[in-house]
Amino acid sequence: MSSPYHITCEECGREVDERFETVWSAVEGWEKKRHQGGTNHIACRRPLPRFRCEPCMQKILAGLPALQGSLWDAE
Q: What DSSP designation does 6 have?
């Protein structure tokens, strides 16, 4: 059953309900750099149909492969 709140993570393939879990979505646009560093604004922001679940994104941000398991993952 499809729902506007359900997305599929492009890394692990898990279906996530964004009403209950954090979902990261890809966007395309034009960024304006801040003098202090980072991005101040993204103009002409266009959402892309690409999503990641929070566990996969946290692994990627830590420099690990999204599908790398851990000793604490359920079997």
A: E
